[in-house]
Structure formats: C-alpha cells, structure tokens
Amino acid sequence: ARVDKAGYKHFMAKEIAEQPQVLGDALNFYLDAEGKIALPGAGIDFAGIERLTLVACGTAYYACLTAKYWFEQLARIPVEVDVASEFRYREPPITQGTAALFVSQSGETADTLAALRYCAGKAERILSVVNVAESSIARESDLALPILAGTEIGVASTKAFSCQLTVLLLLALEAARQKGQIGAERLAELTTALRGLPAVISRALDDGAHAEAISQQLAETTDVLFLGRGLMYPLALEGALKMKEISYIHAEAYASGELKHGPIALIDKHVPVVVMAPRDGLFDKTVSNMQEVLARGGKVLLISDKAGIEAAQDGIWQSIELPQVDPVLAPILYAVPAQLIAYHTAVAKGTDVDQPRNLAKSVTVE
Ligand code: G6P
After folding, report:
1. Left, alpha or beta for 80 (phi > 0: left; psi -120 to 50: alpha)?
2. Interface ipTM
3. Which of 14, 119, 139, 345 is the most buried (most CB within 10 A)?
4. How far is ligand 1, taken at its centre, from the CA of residue 47, in Å?
5. 290 CA distance to ligand 1 centroid (A)?
C-alpha cells in the first residue's frame, strides 16, 4: 500500500506521531490477555543460552546498546554488542551457548546480514528483531521477532527505534522469567507499565511545543553535546545521531561519567549540553556531572521528570519535562524528546528532513 504523509509536513513527523499506535500494536502482539509474554512460533528456550551477542548498525545499534543493560540487569545474561561492520571482519570466536541477535529495521543492511551469515552454524541460535518480516535477515534467522512499526519512510529512524526497544525489553523480560531472575510480581508490574506506555508517549507528544521552541535556539548552534548514564547513555548516543543526521549540527554523546576525561574541554557558553536523566538511582551522579558543565558556563537542556527537574533546576538553561515512568521503561519514552528536538531543529534550519544529504534509508551495499 502507498504510504502518504497524512497531512504531516514530513514523514518523520508522521512517524514520530504514530508511536503510541505502533507501540500498542507491538504490545498487543507480544502480550496475551493475561499480560503474559508470548513470542511467535516456538519462541526461545533460554536454558542453553549463556551469552548474547547483539549486532546492528546505526540506530538499531543503539537499540542493542540499550538492550545490553536490560539483558544484563534483568536476566543476568552477559551481553556483547558490536557494530556489524566491525564484527564481521574481526572474526570473533562464537562459543557454545552464545545466541546471536541481529537488529535491523529493513532486514537488508549489508553489514548486518554478513555478520549474521558469519554466525550461522556457529551460534546456538540466530535471532533477529526486524521491521520487514520478509527480509533477508528475517529469513535467515532461526527466529525473527517483528517490531510491527509499519512502513518507515523517513531516513532517520524513529518509530522503528521505539518498537525495537519495546521488543528487546519484552525479550529480556522473557529471558529473566525463564532464568528465574525476576519475580512474578515485578514482571507483572513491568508488563502493566509497558501497556500504559502508549498513553504516556501520547502525553509527551502533546507537550511537544516546548521542544519545538527550544529547537529554534538549538538551530543557531554549531555543536551540541548529549550526556546520559546507564540506560540513558545509549539514548544520548541516539539523540546525537538524530541531531547530526537531519540538522547537520555537529552532535556528540558521552557517558556522563566520561565528561571529565575529555569532552569537558569543549564546554563553554556556546555549546548546549542535553542531559537525559530521569530521577532514577543514577540521577544524583548525572546531576553532579551536569554541575561540572554549569560551573564552566555551559548551557544545559535537562530532559527529566517533574521530580528530576525540581531537584536540579538551578542554573539550567532549559528543561523538557516528561511523565514519570518506571526507570526500566524510560529509554522508550526518552526517545521521543530526542526525536522532537532533532526534528524541530532540522525544520528550523530548513534541511531536507526526510531525505538528509548523503544518507540512505537502507544500506544494502558495503
Ligand atoms: C541507515 C539508516 C539508519 C539505520 C541504519 C541501519 O544508516 O539511515 O536510520 O538505523 O541504516 O538500518 P537497518 O535497516 O539495518 O536498521
């Protein structure tokens, strides 16, 4: 079927707005009426799986980095994450008990497919998380998990990213359940919270005007830094990627704790620093990094919840307030303001948002 912009100025805007709907579709697919996780086909038996190797490119790679925290913290399974172009030529040993998981929106990215083929016959299981169910990566996997984001046209991935995160979190929860690492109560709490996420994301989208206003000022800058810790570190990386892809503003992300090992040298009053920090167990650590930025005259845009913004607002330049959610789910919600500020900054600069220069939606040649 032909997909049109449905009244939106860009496909990217439409795809950002579609997230509550498509996340709901993915949740309906993976959660049964009782809220139990149901994987397609024969599912996955995690009993023989001791290790996971996650491989992808671009935005899908950041989804993998996020999933590392989930699989390690919730299921206690050690995870290695790599970009496909490095993985495929390093000839990494694939030991017994390793499941290899490939994440790809298109299912056709050349490097990711080559990495999958390298693992075939070596890994215990070949799994994939894909948007295009008939793709090469899906076909060549033992089990392909669809993300159900629907056709994504904007080159900068948005709804596919939040759906990838959702499916990866569900998979980590299923692994945690099978490995006896999560209690029934906590599992139910998290799946219930996931069920509520589409509505929470709708609220965040309804508040998008503030992100738009801030973006008018971001559009005047030449460099932006993104900081995050724990689950927010991969989100910071994704935020920086979105920003550079479509606004052409130089954007870089660091783990907050790495600030003092280099990037702090770049801080002055001209460089906005986007700090992604829900009020979770790591919040105070991130705030102390933020204070190091403020002490050097840096301009902080804090993305947090009400409690976080109240606790840390002294001296900050701008804030974007998000609804409070369980910290485990926060990456899926925090993807939204990252998308919005990149989008509105690009629109303010007048770039070709859906078809940014030099980039392709799917990189099927090396
Ligand atoms: C290209 C796209 C990105 C995407 C990456 C991986 O670089 O511009 O948006 O994240 O490829 O694509 P895949 O289809 O494998 O997820």
Report:
1. beta
2. 0.97
3. 345
4. 32
5. 31
